[in-house]
Amino acid sequence: MPEKIVIIGAGQAGAQAVQTLRAEGFRGAITLAGEEAYPPYQRPPLSKAYLLGSFERPRLFLKPDAFYREADCDLLLGVRAVAIRRAERIVELNDGRLLEYDKLLLTTGTRVRKIACPGADLPGVHYLRDIADVDRLQEVFAAGARIAIVGGGYIGLEVAAVAAKRGLHVTVFEAMDRLMARSVSPQLSDFYAAEHQKAGVVLKLRTGVEAFEGNGKVEQVRAGGAAYPADIVLVGIGVVANDELARDAGLGCDDGIVVDRNAMTGDPAIWAAGDCTRHVGREGTALRLECVQNAIDQAKHAALAMVGRPRTYSEVPWFWSDQYDLKLQIAGLARPTDTIVQRGDPASRKFAVFHLRGGVVAAVEAVNAAPEYLVGKKLIADGVKIAPERLADLSVPMKQMAA
Amino acid sequence: MAAKYKVTYIEASGKAHTVEVPEGWSLMEGAVKNLVPGIDADCGGACACATCQVYVDPAWQAALPPKSDMEETMLDFAPEQRPESRLSCQLRMTGALDGIVLRLPKSQH
C-alpha cells in the first residue's frame, strides 16, 4: 500500500508542504483539507493591495489549480476536521468523511481574537483574516466614511494606511502607549505614529475601547470615556492559534501545538507547521510565530522529516509590512534588553534599527532600507559581532559590514 | 478580461516555457501561476525576499522600466547576480513586453 499523508489546513504552510513533499520524491497519496471555500492563498496582500483594490482575487492564490492536479493532491475545500483518532490514524471531517493517514500534518493556522465588549456583535464591526472578511469590508469602504480601527498592530495600521489613501476618516485606538508595541522597537513606533498622523489618521494611544454603540448597526465607539462616531469598525487585536483539534486528540499544546525542531508533535505520526505551532526558536526559547517565513520554512522542514530526511529548523524569522510608501522589513526577534543602534536618519524615511545582544546582531528593523535588512539578516544568521559605531556609520556600506 | 501577452521563461537547464500573462500581472506571477519552476517568490511579490530573480534577454532590456532603489539593492544581494538581473515581481506585463524572454538562475537561495 502506498503511504498516505493528510494535511489539515489549506493555507501557506499546507500548500508549501504539498510542494516540498512532491519535490522530495514522496509518491504516496496526499490529501489537503481546508475550511475556506478557496484553495491556498496569500494572506499578506489582504490588508494591503487587495483591500486597496489594486490586486484582483485570482492573483491571491498561491498555486494554479493545475498544481494540485499535477501534484496528484486531493484538495478538499469547505471542510473542517473535527477529530483525530490517533489509535486508528483517522481524521474525522465535519461532513462525516473519514480520512485515513499514515502521516498527518497540521497546518491549522490561527483565527482572529474577538473583542469582548458590549456591542461587539453589532453589524458594521469587522475583522480581517480571510478573503470573505475583506470582501465584506470592501462593500462599505467608501471615501468619506468614518472608520474606527481597534488595535494599532500590523493589521490595524495597514488598513489605516489603505483607508487614508482611499479617503476615509480614520481613527486608530490602541490600548498600549505606542503602536506595534508587541513587534517593533519604540523608535519604529514613534516614526510610524508620525507618518500616520501626517496622512490624517487620528491616533488614540493608551485608549482602550469600552463599547460599540448604535441602533441596529454600529454608530459610535466608546473609548477612554468619550464617544467617537463611526460608520465602520475594524478590530485587529491579534490572533489565536487553532490548536483545539490537536489538544482534543491529546497532543501537547501551549498556546499552539508543541513541536520539536523537526516540526514533529509528541506523536511520531503527526507533525505541525506554521502559525499554529509552538516551537523552539533558534535562540533556544519556545515561541509561536505568525508569519509567512515560518509557514514556508517550517512546512518545508516538516515535509523533509515526513519523507525521512529531517533537518533541524533554525531559520532567522523575517517579516514585512507595507504602509503608505514605507516598506518595513524585519529580521530576527528583538528583546527589550538589546542594545539599540540606529543607522540613518528617520527624517530621511530610510533608516534601520539594529538590536545587539552581547555585541552580536540579533535583529534588524529596516524602513525603506533593503541593504540593512538583507545584510542584517545574514549577520544574524552567522552570529556576527559588530561594533555599534561601525554599524551606525553610513560611510561603511552594508556590504562591507562583516569584513 | 485583461489582454494577455506571451512570456518565455528558460530554466537553468535550458528547458523553455512559453506562457500567457495577463496585462498588469508581474512576470513573477506569470511564472508561478503557470508552474514554471525556478522562481520561489516566498514573499508573494512584496519585494521583500529577492527569490524571484531573472536574467532579462539583452534584446529586451531597453523595453523595461528602470529599477527602483529597493529592487536595485535587493538584487545586489541575490545569488548569481548579473548586469541583466531583475526581480520579476517588480516587472509588470504590458504590450511592450509581448514575447519577452527571461532566463532563470540555478537557485534563488
Quote the beta fraction of chain B.
15-25%
Instruction: Assign a percent range to the helix content of chain A.
Output: 10-25%
CATH architecture of chain B: Roll
The total of helices of chain B stands at 2
- The CATH homologous superfamily of chain B is named Beta-grasp domain
Say what the CATH topology of chain B is.
Ubiquitin-like (UB roll)
Mean pLDDT of chain A: 96
State the end-to-end CA separation of chain B: 35 Å
Trace the largest sheet of chain A across and list its strands. Answer: 3-2-1-7-19
How far from one another are the termini of chain A?
55 Å
User: How many strands in all of chain A?
Assistant: 26
| Domain tally of chain B | 1
Name the shape of chain A in a single word.
globular
Q: Which oligomeric state applies? A: heterodimer
Category by helix and strand content of chain A: alpha/beta
Radius of gyration of chain B: 12 Å
Number of extended strands of chain B: 5
CATH top level of the largest domain in chain A is Alpha Beta
Commentary on this structure:
The complex is a heterodimer of chains A (403) and B (109). Chain A has 403 residues and is α/β, with parallel strands linked by helices. Chain A contains ten helices and 26 strands. Helices cover 24% and strands 28% of the residues of chain A. Chain A has three domains: 176 residues, FAD/NAD(P)-binding domain; 111 residues, FAD/NAD(P)-binding domain (3-Layer(bba) Sandwich), CATH 3.50.50; 76 residues, FAD/NAD-linked reductase, C-terminal dimerisation domain (Enolase-like, domain 1), CATH 3.30.390. Chain B is built from two helices and five strands. Chain B has a single domain, classed as Roll (Ubiquitin-like (UB roll)). The termini of chain B are far apart. Chain B is α+β, with helices and mostly antiparallel strands and 109 residues long. Classes of the chains: A alpha/beta (403), B alpha+beta (109). At the A-B interface, helix 3, helix 8, strand 22 and helix 9 of A face helix 2 of B.
